[in-house]
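Database export, one record per block. Field names are fixed; values are copied verbatim from the stored entry.
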Amino acid sequence: MRKRARIIYNPTSGRELVKQKLVDILNVFEQAGYETSAFATTPAENSARDEAHRAGKDGFDLIVAAGGDGTINEVVNGVAPLKKRPKMAIIPAGTTNDYARALHIPREDPVEAAKVVLKNQTINMDIGKAGKSYFINIAAGGLLTELTYDVPSNLKTVFGYLAYLVKGAELLPRIKLIDMDIKYDDGEFKGKASMFFLALTNSVGGFEQIVPDASLDDGKFTLIIVKTANLVEILHLVSKVFNGGSHVNDPRIIYKKTRQVTAKPVHDRMQINLDGEYGGDAPMKFTNLKQHIAIFADTDSIPNEAYENDEDLLFAEKNFVENVDRIPDADK
């Protein structure tokens, strides 16, 4: 039987570019050997998630998430609980497109993004689980949560990432410390911090130096806790981010690799942000699901240290077997 692909697209994302180029996008996946159909998301809650779950259960071989990071998150939430999970592909059409940036998928042209599937390169990507929900890029509590919620959707559509920068500058004077209790694999932080976040990729809010050593498939989050709310100190930390990622060694930062995290506030309410959307209130437990979903990516452009290069491993194993076969038998 021919393989089947289902494109789940947000018809209003990215100036409706995906909708305009849909015929060309369908042709790309047909060229890749997939019998391809499309589903336009609706304003109904969890529209993309429910369709991804249905298509996965129905045996589709590939689910394509076309839209912003929110659409991709929904599709992952539909696919992740399945025992037999289809492969995924990404066509970015949002504001920051962090996930596409991390996978080196073209972000300006949806047809070029679709053509990544023609390279037939995938990475078995880690994803995060938080309670009953899943996330693909970040989970956070504190400033980042407030910032994302406070940017109006129409402002994001018109001004893109500039909207986040403007709103962020407005919020900085209002940052305050929260008493947090953050437990991770080899330690615990109990004290005041302005924010924490867990990252699965190196692209956070459009910046690639916040997590300079991120791995896409090692089964570990990067945990960052910011222990200051002082405006001058935060701006200094931001300057270190741009200066080669030197913030990771700053004493005002906790920077750890961990498979699990439990976060809870000591007194105040702490909202949790999952991939830019409200994901519930702490306390909450976060678990890294190692190499949970195979996603098409341009692996030729991704640094080897960012993921496990399966082709290299297979080549090494092949050479090892061939060399062993050449060793003379000791009994002869």
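Remark 1: Residues 310-326 form the longest helix (17 residues).
Remark 2: The chain has eleven helices and 16 strands.
End of record.
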